[in-house]
């Protein structure tokens, strides 16, 4: 017989087995199995949610007459003390107790004795962990919504201040048409606006209280899930116990939402990296948000932006990890699902850190308006307007396009700009060109000509900005309302 097989399960001083589930076991868990199966090293992050959920559960048990009111009070008091111990760094997490749920429960029993053992009545760790995750994510989503609102405000301020700055807009990374810098910045506002919306919608799907599902089939006690939901500020309860314990869609959706936020941050970072290069020279990044080279003394590098771009990939990895984690799992809870927390927490931390550093960086970026102006006046960014002018003179667009192209070719050969061509030159190139052509080809005029909804003319960009201010205000009050709701029960 191997030595290990002789080991008896460890007992608490009261004679109970140390592990909550040790009853049916003859052997003690192998230490390597304890190390392998533990999640306390990462799920201790959920301690607040776990304790809040347990307090709500205990109050519900008392309210339903499943537990004497005095017991529930002692349990709540003990749990609140444990929260204090954890917050003060005085709690000793043990990997022998596997996870946050059993660490807290064991400490509760240690503190208040047998009564503590009543807390888990009508509950399983399967519905408990689902509740913890939903409580956690609901809070996190609101924090990130707040960060996005902050970013909105920075973008809107910067757009307001750069309304008169013109720069070349690019397609294929080739100069295309002149745009207002404010219009360019507002394009990012629109992206992050959708990101904020996505998170609000996700919040609604997270806002479901799963307790009462038990391990899989629901509880045999007369529990009242809506009582718990009310205490914890959930707007509804899970309609199916099997789905309640095995659904992780919400974590996957969060990683997707985080991926798209980072996609937007990464594109913008990439653009600012280009813009801060000597070749573009469109922005000067503040020294405080750059780093230097250990060898080349002259260097000032946009590392913060590069790291945002780099970290984005790792969050796509989190999304992929969760999708693959779940794809082969039959109903209902499988231990695989414990692994959901590592990618989820990583995605949360990364998206939050990137948003916060990007926001302050954007506040401090210096836009080089003169350089942008110089670049917008070179490169025939008004060639489309020449074609449009010919169309207005009655020429079919295809022909006008060819004529304008020939005029550009001529200018390239002569080292001239379209707006500088003389009457005799126009006569030779395109006699249809009218006397007002010079005015039409002016860059300000080209920008102002785009005066349709969504266009880059001043009036339209102002309208966009005004609308955005209204949206931000509405979103802010909705966020405040959402954050007020769970306040019924707090630690
Ligand atoms: N630590 C586990 C997790 O995060 C809690 C649920 C465990 N349930 C179980 N039956 N082993 O998923």
Could you describe the 3D structure shown?
With 491 residues, the chain is mostly helical. It folds into 3 domains: 22-118, Fumarase C, Chain B, domain 1 (Orthogonal Bundle); 125-375 and 468-483, Up-down Bundle (Fumarase C, Chain A, domain 2); 383-441, Ribonucleotide Reductase Protein R1, domain 1, CATH 1.10.40. 60% of the residues lie in helices and 4% in strands. It has 19 helices and 6 strands. It has a two-stranded antiparallel ribbon with strand order 1-2. The protein has a two-stranded parallel ribbon with strand order 3-4. A two-stranded antiparallel sheet has the order 5-6. Strand 1 (166-171) and strand 2 form a beta hairpin. Bound molecules: arginine. Residues 39, 43, 99, 125-126, 129, 333, 335, 337-338 line the site of arginine.
What tags apply to this protein structure?
3 domains, mainly alpha, binds arginine, 491 residues, Fumarase C, Chain B, domain 1, 19 helices, Fumarase C, Chain A, domain 2, Ribonucleotide Reductase Protein R1, domain 1
Number of strands: 6
CATH topology of the largest domain: Fumarase C, Chain A, domain 2
Largest sheet: 2 strands, antiparallel
Oligomer description: single chain
